[in-house]
Design brief:
By secondary structure, the chain is of the alpha+beta class. It has one domain (2-137): Gcn5-related N-acetyltransferase (GNAT) (Aminopeptidase, 3-Layer(aba) Sandwich). It contains five helices and six strands; from the N terminus they run H-H-H-E-E-E-H-E-H-E-E. It has helices at residues 2-5, 7-10, 22-39, 79-92, 111-116; strands at residues 43-48, 51-61, 64-71, 98-103, 119-126, 129-137. The protein has a six-stranded mixed sheet. Strand 1 and strand 2 form a beta hairpin. The longest helix has 18 residues, at 22-39. It is globular and about 45 Å long.
Length: 142
């Protein structure tokens, strides 16, 4: 609740339009657990040296696996390292030939996406909000 209530976390999360209370946390966790039950994969709590630093992982959106990462402000610098580990995980999972990432237009520093190998696909709308859609291949070309 404290993590998702921090205004620095919500700065680039346009879908975060509600207050995080115990009921919101319970709904959020239930939704994420439902993804695991339905798809066999979902989001993880992310730990570094045994300490919670955020959450992220893969969520099935239609036929695509979307990758997302939400770190606590003191852990923002871990994003590239965690993302590389997640991409390695996806590359080892035959269900995931590529991943997508939806980035809000408010994010201006997108060099990390290019360094990870993601390419811009198009602008898209999700829940009525505009995002920049990126795609990263996880399987090598034949």
């Amino acid at each position: 609740m404290a993590h998702m209530s921090d205004p620095r976390v919500g700065q680039h999360m346009p879908l975060l339009t509600f207050e995080w209370d115990e009921a919101a946390v319970a709904r959020f966790i239930a939704t994420k657990e439902e993804s695991w039950s339905r798809d066999g994969l979902g989001h993880w709590a992310i730990l570094c040296d045994g300490k919670y630093v955020g959450w992220g992982g893969f969520q099935k959106e239609g036929e695509e696996w979307d990758y997302g990462l939400v770190l606590k402000p003191g852990s923002f610098g871990l994003g590239a390292r965690i993302s590389r580990m997640a991409i390695e995980f996806a590359a080892a999972d035959e269900r995931i030939p590529y991943i997508t990432m939806l980035v809000p237009p408010s994010r201006k520093n997108l060099g990390a996406l290019a360094r990870l190998g993601a390419r811009f696909v198009d602008e898209t709308e999700y829940d009525g909000v505009k995002f920049l859609k990126y795609r990263l291949e996880t399987t090598p070309p034949c």
